[in-house]
Amino acid sequence: MSSLIDSFTIELRRGTLTLAVLSQLQTPQYGYSLVQRLEQAGVSIEQNTLYPLLRRLEKQELVTSSWDTTESRPRKYYVISNYGNEIFEQLKTEWLTLASELNTLLQGDDK
Description:
Elements: H1 2-23, E1 29-30, H2 31-40, H3 47-59, E2 63-68, E3 75-80, H4 82-109
Antiparallel strand pairs: 1-3, 2-3
């Protein structure tokens, strides 16, 4: 039963991670700083999940990236694009509506 719950939990999280990541890219972030910001908000994400997601978002033109080579260790920074902001705002509205509807349904189960 635990693996079934794990499977459902992964499915639930998969769709929401994109929204969580986009929400944190209003200012440029590199991978580790993004992981830390998400963890501080209670959203855990593995690096082997984050980097493919960032590459996919970049390919979809939702984020842009640039290298900062001013420090001894070069870092690749990601930031949300204008197009990404448009998509993010629509996804956020969709999420808030869905969460409200589900909350109503789930509270109905307690009665």
